Amino acid sequence: MLTETFVMDCARCESAAVRITHGHANIILCAFHVIRAFRKKTNDKILKTYLTRLVTAETVGRFNQYYRIINRRDRSIGQYLSRYWMARKTMWARAFYGDVLTLGNSTNNRVESLNRQVKRYVRKSDSLYKCMYKALKWSEMMSTRRSVEDQLIAGRYYKYNAPQRLIPLLNILTPFARSKVLYELKQMRFVYVEYESGDWLFMVDRGQHYEVDISICQCNCSMFMMCRYPCRHMLLAYVKRRNLTAHQLLRYCSRWKLHNTQNFQNYTLTALPRRSEEYVSIQRSQRIHKHRIIEKYGERFATEVEKKVDNYYLRILNTNL
After folding, report:
1. Residue 140 burial by CB count (10 A; 0-12/13-18/19+): exposed, middle or buried?
2. 101 contact partners, CB below 8 Å, separation of at least 6
C-alpha cells in the first residue's frame, strides 16, 4: 500500500526527494523542528509563546489572530514568516492540515521517535557491539506487555484514576496508544456533554464545540482525525453509553490494538466535518426554544411543532431529489 503521509524535519532537500518518489503523499513538517526554528529568531519570551501557539493553533481564526499579534510585536519576525514560511503553511500549521492523518507520530514511521529513546541509553564512548546490545535490550524491554493495573501501580510520576469500565479498553491497546489515552483521560475532566440527539453527542471542551457520532464511533476533533486513537470526547461517550463496546470504539483505531497483524491499513475514510460556530449556535438556540415551548404551552404542543418542522425538512429533501 502507498504511503499516505510523511512527517519530517524542515530540510528542503528531504521534502524535494519525497516529492519526486511519492508525489501523491502529504508532507508534514515536524512541529518540534518548526517551533525550534522559529524560537531561534528571537529572544523575546512572549513572542516565543505566540510563535508556538501559531504552530499549534487548531482553527484558522486563532492562527490569523496570533499572526497579527506577532506582526505588531516584531515586524522583522512577521516579515521572516511571510517570506519563508507562509507560502507552505499547509505543511506546518495545524489549522491548515487538521484533516491529514499522521497517526500521532512526530516523525515518519516512528523512526526518529525511537532515536530519542535510544540516545538515553547509548553513549559516544560505547562500541558498536555495546550500542547494538543496548538497542536490542531496550526493544525487548518495551515489547513486554503488562496489564494496565500493574502500570498504574508502578507509575512513578503520574497517578491516573481510570474508571473500571475503561480498564478492558486500555488493556487491548499498545503501550504507546495506552499512554496517550491515559493522558486524554486526564484531560476528560474539562469536557461535558451539552446535549444528546440520537447517536450524536454534542460536547464542549474548554469553549470549543465537538461532536461524536456513536453509530460510526468518530469524533470531529483534530486529535482523532490526525492520530486515530480514542480522544477525550470518545472516552466520555464510552463512559456515558453503556451499550458501546471497546471493539466498537476502536473500529477505526485498530492500528493501536495489541495482536494486530495488519499495522498499515487504508485510512482514507471520510472524517466528520467540523461544524461551524453558526451551525452549533442555531442548534443550541433550537433546543432552548423547544424547552421554552414545553414550559409555556406543554409537551403536546411542542411535539406538534416538531412534527411540522420535520415535515418541512422532508419536503425540502424531496424537492431536491
Report:
1. exposed
2. 4, 5, 225, 226, 228, 267
CA gap 86, 204 in Å, rounded: 31
Distance CA 133, CA 136 (A): 5
Residues 33 and 53: beta-carbon distance below 8 Å: no
CA 169 to chain CA centroid, nearest Å? 18
Distance from C-alpha of 193 to C-alpha of 174, rounded to nearest angstrom: 28
Q: Within 10 Å of residue 165's Cβ, how many Cβ atoms?
A: 13
Handedness of CA 203, 201, 98, 179 (dihedral sign): positive
pLDDT for res 233: 92
For 95, half-sphere exposure in the C-beta direction (CA atoms, 13 angstrom radius) is: 18
**This prediction's pTM:** 0.50
Cβ contact 202:193 at 8 Å: yes
DSSP per-residue letters across 4-40: -EEEE-S-HHHHHHHHHH-TTSEEEE-HHHHHHHHHT
Cα separations (Å) of 199 from 164, 215, 251, 270, 304? 24, 6, 16, 18, 23
pLDDT grade, residue 161 (50/70/90)?
Answer: low
SS3 191: strand
What are residue 196's phi and psi, to 5 degrees? -120, 145
Q: Look at phi and psi of residue 50 and say left if phi exceeds 0, alpha if psi is from -120 to 50, else beta.
A: alpha
CA 128 to the chain's CA centroid: 39
pLDDT of residue 72: 92
Task: Specify the higher pLDDT residue, 71 or 106.
Answer: 71
Angle between helices 45-56 and 31-39 (to 10 degrees): 150
Is 196 exposed, middle or buried (CB count within 10 Å of its CB: 0-12, 13-18, 19+)?
middle
Task: Please give the grid coordinates belonging to residue 80.
Answer: 521572516
Residue type, 230: P
Examine the pLDDT at 158 and tell me if it is beyond 60: no
